[in-house]
Design goal:
By secondary structure, this protein is an alpha/beta fold. It is built from 14 helices and twelve strands. It has two domains: about 1-25 and about 255-345, no CATH class; about 35-160 and about 195-250, Spore Coat Polysaccharide Biosynthesis Protein SpsA, Chain A, CATH 3.90.550.10. The model has no long low-confidence stretch (mean pLDDT about 90).
């Protein structure tokens, strides 16, 4: 009883401190004028994305950015559907878009790192911006990402929202908001502890100085590994959160897909941030400990439950207000999220392997 009371008391204090720090240390970025924008390369990894890629490329082509300064490289990673046809359709239609064929596991790299490595090799420009093929962006997204790089940063993690269309999507939206709250607060107060691989940017010179993806070797958490390389070499990194410049990702459609996604995330945390993974273990799996506490002390169980509910609701609401978004809070969302994290951890321990676009690694 004393152990759990101590753990969740400390976590409550930490969460309150993070809320104070968020408002105290929040860092924002101003959009640079269009006439001052530099040349930029946008990297898009695509594998079996026939249902998503068209929307992604169309959103990129509505960007508020001078397209004579833009190249969009789309890598087709041996897709088994019509992804390649869509890429060539857009490449023929828009001068800025170029199709790049991807060799399987070149230089020993796997998954997304293999695709990005080959795209960067053929890219022209210093500013490199990554967006996943299953995402869409607002018209000022590209300019904001580049503005953050030109403000003295060498790597930037963008702001991603889950598109909401159902209660299941709202569940994921709330969770993303809570996670991004912690990422933004820690980034502004100390330094980024993680990065959104589906929406990020970096300077090509710094990328090569740290050895790039080749220096990481085979990994399925290439984004976090690259972030740590940048930080180790003293390069400046940042987490973006703003009311403009959003990228939107489609929600996972089933609990199975959501579980697989969380397995990948947990694998990254425990592989690269084991020390931070310990408090995260108790913070994310609070429902399990609240249930266990029922057999010890009802007041302790109520305290843990209160912690799990108010922290998630508060962080989501702060982020929603900060980004001028709209949400529909589902009161049971924190409970479902915690149970999903519990199942994901069990699956990771028992099965071990995670998958990316149908490939297990």
């Amino acid at each position: 009883m004393v152990f759990l009371l101590t753990v969740y008391s400390l976590l409550s204090v930490i969460e309150l401190a993070l809320i104070v720090i968020h408002f105290w240390k929040f860092k924002s970025i101003a959009l640079i004028p269009k006439e001052q924008t530099p040349e930029v390369t946008v990297l898009v990894c695509a594998r079996n994305e026939e249902h998503n890629l068209r929307d992604c490329l169309e959103s990129l082509m509505t960007s508020d950015y001078p397209f004579e300064k833009v190249e969009i490289l789309v890598g087709d990673d041996n897709s088994e559907d019509s992804t390649g046809d869509i890429i060539h359709e857009f490449a023929n239609k828009f001068k800025a878009i170029k199709a790049v064929d991807i060799a399987h596991e070149k230089d020993g790299l796997i998954a997304k790192a293999n695709v990005l490595n080959q795209l960067i090799d053929v890219s022209q420009y210093e500013c490199q911006v990554i967006i996943d093929a299953d995402m869409v962006v607002t018209k000022d997204w590209l300019r904001l990402m580049v503005s953050a790089l030109k403000s003295g940063n060498d790597m930037v993690s963008g702001y991603t929202q889950v598109k909401r269309s159902s209660w299941f999507a709202n569940l994921q939206f709330m969770d993303w908001q809570s996670v991004l709250f912690a990422m933004k607060t820690m980034a502004d107060f100390v330094r980024p502890i993680s990065i959104l691989g589906n929406n990020m940017a970096f300077n090509k010179t710094a990328y090569h100085k740290v050895g790039g993806f080749r220096g990481l070797g085979p990994t399925d958490v290439e984004d976090l590994g690259l972030l740590q390389r940048f930080q180790k070499e003293g390069f400046r990194t940042m987490q973006l959160v703003a009311s403009e410049g959003h990228a939107y990702t489609k929600p996972q459609l089933t609990f199975g897909e959501l579980l697989t996604q969380r397995c990948r995330w947990m694998n990254g945390v425990f592989t690269h941030h084991f020390v931070l993974g310990i408090p995260a273990f108790f913070a994310r799996l609070w429902v399990v400990f609240a249930v266990l506490a029922l057999f010890i002390n009802l007041n302790l169980a109520a305290f843990i439950a209160f912690y799990g509910l108010w922290t998630n609701w508060a962080k989501s609401r702060i982020m929603t207000t900060r980004t001028k978004s709209h949400d529909s809070i589902f009161l049971l969302s924190p409970i479902i999220i915690s149970l999903l994290d519990t199942l994901a951890l069990l699956r990771l321990v028992l099965i071990g392997k995670v998958s990316w676009k149908g490939r297990k690694h």
